[in-house]
Amino acid sequence: MTEQFERILITGAAGALGSRLREGLRPMARRLRLHDREDMGAAAAHEEIVRGDLADFASVLEATRDVDAIVHFGGAPMERPWQTVLDSSIRGSYHIYEGARQNKVPRVVYASSIHAVGYYAVEDSVDTRAMHRPDSLYGLSKCFTEDLARLYYDKFGIESVCLRICSCFEAPEGRRHMWSFLTYADMIHLVRCALRVPRAGYTIIYGNSDNEENAVSNRYAGHIGFRPRESVEPHRARVFDTTDAPDAHATDIRHVGGFLCALGHPDDSDDWRV
Amino acid sequence: MTEQFERILITGAAGALGSRLREGLRPMARRLRLHDREDMGAAAAHEEIVRGDLADFASVLEATRDVDAIVHFGGAPMERPWQTVLDSSIRGSYHIYEGARQNKVPRVVYASSIHAVGYYAVEDSVDTRAMHRPDSLYGLSKCFTEDLARLYYDKFGIESVCLRICSCFEAPEGRRHMWSFLTYADMIHLVRCALRVPRAGYTIIYGNSDNEENAVSNRYAGHIGFRPRESVEPHRARVFDTTDAPDAHATDIRHVGGFLCALGHPDDSDDWRV
Amino acid sequence: MTEQFERILITGAAGALGSRLREGLRPMARRLRLHDREDMGAAAAHEEIVRGDLADFASVLEATRDVDAIVHFGGAPMERPWQTVLDSSIRGSYHIYEGARQNKVPRVVYASSIHAVGYYAVEDSVDTRAMHRPDSLYGLSKCFTEDLARLYYDKFGIESVCLRICSCFEAPEGRRHMWSFLTYADMIHLVRCALRVPRAGYTIIYGNSDNEENAVSNRYAGHIGFRPRESVEPHRARVFDTTDAPDAHATDIRHVGGFLCALGHPDDSDDWRV
Amino acid sequence: MTEQFERILITGAAGALGSRLREGLRPMARRLRLHDREDMGAAAAHEEIVRGDLADFASVLEATRDVDAIVHFGGAPMERPWQTVLDSSIRGSYHIYEGARQNKVPRVVYASSIHAVGYYAVEDSVDTRAMHRPDSLYGLSKCFTEDLARLYYDKFGIESVCLRICSCFEAPEGRRHMWSFLTYADMIHLVRCALRVPRAGYTIIYGNSDNEENAVSNRYAGHIGFRPRESVEPHRARVFDTTDAPDAHATDIRHVGGFLCALGHPDDSDDWRV
Amino acid sequence: MTEQFERILITGAAGALGSRLREGLRPMARRLRLHDREDMGAAAAHEEIVRGDLADFASVLEATRDVDAIVHFGGAPMERPWQTVLDSSIRGSYHIYEGARQNKVPRVVYASSIHAVGYYAVEDSVDTRAMHRPDSLYGLSKCFTEDLARLYYDKFGIESVCLRICSCFEAPEGRRHMWSFLTYADMIHLVRCALRVPRAGYTIIYGNSDNEENAVSNRYAGHIGFRPRESVEPHRARVFDTTDAPDAHATDIRHVGGFLCALGHPDDSDDWRV
Amino acid sequence: MTEQFERILITGAAGALGSRLREGLRPMARRLRLHDREDMGAAAAHEEIVRGDLADFASVLEATRDVDAIVHFGGAPMERPWQTVLDSSIRGSYHIYEGARQNKVPRVVYASSIHAVGYYAVEDSVDTRAMHRPDSLYGLSKCFTEDLARLYYDKFGIESVCLRICSCFEAPEGRRHMWSFLTYADMIHLVRCALRVPRAGYTIIYGNSDNEENAVSNRYAGHIGFRPRESVEPHRARVFDTTDAPDAHATDIRHVGGFLCALGHPDDSDDWRV
Predict the structure, then answer these.
(1) Is the pTM of this model over 0.95?
(2) What value of ipTM does the predicted structure carry?
(3) CA E270, CA E255: separation in Å to the nearest integer?
(4) Contact: A201, B175; criterion CB under 8 Å
(5) pLDDT tier for residue F140 given thresholds of 50, 70 and 90
(6) Are A91 and A54 a contacting pair, CB within 8 Å?
(7) How far is A249 from chain F (nearest CA, A)?
(8) Where in the sequence numbering do the catalytic residues of A fall?
(9) Contact E123/D203, CB-based, under 8 Å?
């Protein structure tokens, strides 16, 4: 199959997930444009590197020009103080959608998060039509962008697939990951599915692998065609051997958002870090 | 396993699907009775050929005598002018159910269609309890027969399984088929499942293969036991290579009914054809 | 308030309900056009009388010309043999909607019936999004027309309000009427509400008065603005005094469709009457 | 009844609704603290006037000290350019909730808006558990604050009642107001209900009067005890006499958000005004 | 209206509610049979007094002979030790339904309780189809009897109306009663509605008066025809004046079950009393 | 993986399922305590045998001391007279939960049954949030214990997983088993899943194998991680060959509870047996 797209923009391309998409999306477009405020190394022949800050609208407007699709993985990657969340994630996402609107980009694939609904209990089997229940400023910024995406779909016809990524790391580390883990390969596959479908409309979908346990439901997202191909199960024995049985009533075990539910409010110091 | 049924009637037996059922249902009954107004060739030893028009009640009454089950695939196979739909599909289906009632046939498997709910959007994940949203006179006649079947179940105890067949052809041809395609083998399997279950009651079930993408939900039809065994995926590369990316907002891409949603109203000329 | 409409067509204008609408809708339009195959007496100054059969498309096409709204109360008024239902109600309703389409009439108010969902139990609290469960050929024709109306809304933008009238008579006669009764005044008010709202879209609404008991739910139809103003309660003592306590398990008491659920299938004789 | 509260803070106290609450809430607290960046005139004996900008956290932190409840009606009152919405409504609301958290204020009553769900159709009967569908940057900021309130409830136990006010003006002006109108007296009553209930938890409730027509549902908000006491009906004749029948398919008639659905994107000029 | 019933049995007839039903149901039956293990005073001309223990099946079998309907208000009236709940409420209710079955009594009206679902939050708007969430052994025995009633309906056709009575006392005493209060007159009216309807099937209905606040929903029980005629509102000022503002997060304020949610487990001593 | 638990109590350890759990759970705990009133043979080195009656609280209190989890499979294994059900299953389950509370056991895995909801029809696709519909005293005792478990979760934080086991035998015997069959290996796997998850909360889950047909839905129980590994399909040919086609309308075929729905009420003789 030849590439489906002429040019895809990836934001957050220097990040943990973005850098993997840089490899993973290569077959889908003739050119990949990469955006981040961090160094992204040298551009390959099929790549265009645009360094800039999501908080800078001029930069974003430029980055979104002449692209067929945006894979928006930029923004604060975890709980941060309000000003950081505001600039990177709220203002940044607004700039992305305004860029898409002004540059007539038809579809955005957005890295939302399980933390948009983190306060549901594991046993709630939360689906993609449930109300928001953010567990952090981070989660709140994901809610904001999901609603922003909805507005731009209803009003301007820009399609969005909001990926509520659960736990996407190199390897699982705790028992909660037995349901929430998403392998890097499945993450890339999920983005590719969201890009390839002829009709996305406005869709929310959870991102976790084909694990035996599952605390969220994609029953309303079958049209995206995401069937995870990997599983956390090969890691089960190691995870159980290296962790203690948790308290089932602890906030971070009870809720799908995990430890962000248990985390206090970030203070405003510049060096506040989870 | 010996045959489960003594005699099954297949209507529309000369049609694209009916002729395949003629082969596919052979193991299920000692005798197959075949009904169509078109030529069906010669009868095999286990077959009974009854040529006639569904619009002729006397013929249908005769065809439905002494059968254990009816597999009703007859009627106009696609959008047609009103008078054709009325005669073949509305009056024809009424004749089938009246035949079943007068001849005490306990179960009907009916070839309904995705076009009974064609105006739902792909991202609606429409299930089998949703309200009708026909996309054509063809779809309207499917709605009518589903409701007719419901009446005959509630009032007279005749069981029905209404198969909302999506796209059942030799091979997929467009990107919408990536979710809607039903292989012939899976179609036959679906009919066999609908026949073999001890209890069908009144059930609606979608007919599409085990494709990665899926825009409809059989979550309320698990008791039928239909697990498709084939998939459209082997065709994906060819389909993508030979088709252009569609406009996600076009009526025929947005709605599960596809091009019938985009089609105008049929005029009344005898030679009107989609 | 001056009349909201220039010309409203009322079908079935000689019938029990139609004749009351002839009076009741007078303030809403400068001219009322009345259609029926029965004699309607002399036309008042603001009236146009068109005698004809709904089964005759030419007559319906003529009747629907130059009207702002259609109040479609014509068709077989109760369970009848198939051929009668087919001609008066199925073909007749198709003609009405085709007339509306060809003559660009923007809205139809249709006399559907509780019998479109007659097999729900009284304790089901059936709402307007539930699947059809017709209890008779009469009910089946109501289901057909509701689906027809949905098609013409989704495809051609013609708005419809389908009134599922429960029991609209001069006075209540049995204990089932304690929930199902709709007074003539409330029936007229319901039609006026359906006509006056700026936006109807495609809406189904139950028609019963403000009775203490209620077995159906209009929770999804509040936008129509129908608040019944009368009640069956003044009749309670008389109804209870003149009727025996019914068997709670009898088919006609259990289901919202009442005696039509208990009625057998109509035979095909011309003089079959409930 | 003596005052239930010691001190209530009203933000946006100089606004159209805030100034009416200044009168209306007088019986509920021993002292009212009023906050706005506009002039609020002289303070009465029971009043404390704090002039300041919601975008200034220090000012908000001060204003929220020593209050029992916050009635948050401040922020941009209608569609505005992004920077204005961001400062007044997004940053402003965050400051309010942070003020509440740091000052241990147990409950916030927030002036959300129908525009948080403006893209639902009138016939959808949208309830308070439906997903957000904002129709404007204004609506988007309401979605943000509702989610912010949810976070502060789930994480910090601060109760919120989010009032999705529909159309609260001096008098109704168009036919859409026949369902959406909220009289000033009912608006005040709604705020008082939200303050007086012993348990609010996190609740969303629509604010419209007891109008005959209604396009939204408070079926999940009965515990607030809001029963509107007035109605738009006395205005019906005048409204109908002075307005033309609208096009039922026009964006602003079809959707509950009205004209904000039809409005384009605000440009960034300082003097942009709806 | 003459009496609808020949003979109604009231259990718990010496209790706070039962003694009021003794007066209130007088017009509904030619004879009232009263059952309790406590003294019930002298029988009026239309009364039959049967003293006995619900835990004694022989007594119950005798008491249920030749009655048209059973109004089952007996059993432990509040949280009690397990053995008491078991004998009075679990074994007692079983005896009642077995008596009904053996004596062919067609309908039972049962005093269930809000405590069958006490752990739902006030803001959940719990309806009558929600799963049980008992808050006490008392509530658990109500759940048991509701399920017992369901079994006897599904298997033996005995109709039941389970009244989830909220707070039925002489006068309201706390702010929770502002939604939960049921006046004695409304309680009697509720029982009469449950008796008079021609079809009850198996129905659960909440019992609270027409209070402005309401934390439960009877949206699926409209067919019973219960419209409360009184309200707690006349008591509001007194209740607010005589009580302190509660903590919204306290267990007994948060949950519909009130103080039973906050109560510990009863010990097994004979004199344990709430 | 080393054993997850220090000591698990299995009740009903001499029964058909309990004896298999005795083997199957061996890898999960350092010690297994086995309880039954029947002989359990000799204890292995890792086993503790406690013979006693569930109806005897002292015995149960002792058995539940110092255990990490309880696997409660004791009680009457099928329909029995009331007194037996009361003692073994209702009183017995109460004793188990009281033992768990007094001995601070954090989790119970309970052998509930499909008979707690036996009166749903096969085509209802009943899920785990549906209301109870017991089909027998046996099923009623399962409902009771599920509600008891809910109370002890909501009030005391004891987690429960209620396994609604469908048909767990050596081999399937009738066509209903084509959906309901649970192999012994899958039963053991189900219990292990219920024990191993870090968070169970209060969860209900159906127990049937990965059969093609399925009449129940675990869509809300994915967090338990139960994916059956076996199927009834290898038995299909034999089952069909050795059984007649059933009547689809027969009570035991129509309802998920099977023959218990068709069974009459048990009489009170000691030797009554299904």
Answers:
(1) yes
(2) 0.97
(3) 29
(4) no
(5) very high
(6) yes
(7) 8
(8) 138
(9) yes
